[in-house]
Amino acid sequence: MNKVFFYLAIIGMTTVSCNNVQSYHEDDKEGLRIFLRQPSSDEDCKINATQVGMEINDTINWQHNEQWVEKIEGLVWNNELPKRLIAIEWPSGTLEGTLDARLWRDLEEIECSSNLFTAINVNENKKLKKINCSNNQLSALDLRSNTALEELWCEGNQLSSLNIQSNTLLSTISCINNQLTELDIHANTALRYLYCEFNQLTSLDVRYNTLLTSLYCYNNQLTELDVHENMALASLYCHFNRLKKLDVRMNTALEYLYCNDNQLSKLDVCEENVLKILKVYNNNFSLSDLFALKEIIALYEEPMGLQILPPLKVKINDVIDFSNQNKFNDTYTQFTITQNNNATSENDYNIYNGKITFYRLGNYTITMTNEAIAPSAYLPAKVIIEIEVEGL
After folding, report:
1. Which domains does the chain show, CATH number per domain?
2. What are the pLDDT digits (tens) for 368-386?
3. How far apart (Å, rounded) are the C-alpha atoms in residues 226 and 208?
4. pTM for this model (two decimals)
């Protein structure tokens, strides 16, 4: 009889012990509780918990059970016991407040884009490899402790600075549409993809990023861009800046070059290029510059578009020499001269072999076109220069 009682006692102890085993680590659960009890902006969802699959009643006794954890959508756990949280997938919602991930020590990925977060704390997440916090309301982002980080997506926030010097493993950075005035990436030597368009950058040093294959830096305020060291570069989108010259002769892998809407008067392209797309319109190229580009690239139908040369001031009877713009491949350039958008007469000027002399005072517009230079129905090659003619 004593043996029977002994075995029953052992079975009872085992049952109690199994019932007390926690499937999920207490730190992870506490971190979830802290976040989920924060107010939500959704009128029908009072707290963040109700935005991720829970109900208000699930929070009543959540200190003493784990059933509520299994209701939460978008969580990925490891296979250990107790389980640790390794990934969060909460995109496109109305979650708000602070996403404090410090208790989720094994976390490797955070996807929380398109929410209403005003702050994110990942200071203790040493294993974090990827974070996508795009399209929130962040004004600061501290990633100094996240040395394992490989992908950073933080576009569409209000960041005025971004310190990524400790994140030397980063291969992808997307910080589009913020308020950055500078971006130091000299320590990010593993970088392959950089998307930093729609900021306020006045300079960008990519000399140390020799693995870079895609560089999107358009819609900034760049006045120069040195890509000599970026020999793996396949895509360069640097349009809508203030560049005056661009040299891509070393970028023999370059396939896509968008440098339109700058102030370029010089573009050096390798003769052995593999360009598939070249956009150069709305710069300061002459017809001869455009013709030279056409001769060394295979994109014969690529539109060269409108070019605006710097304005000139001359005196009556001065000779303006455009003879080097007068003829290409036996095709003569058409010079159209107007004054205040009105046609001019033969008494206003004389033109011969591209040399123009004005006989009357005023402001004139010279438009040059030539069918030998990449004709295009919607963006024909056209060079315009404003001339102010003064008295003697």
Report:
1. 312-390 (2.60.40.10)
2. 999 888 667 677 889 999 9
3. 11
4. 0.91
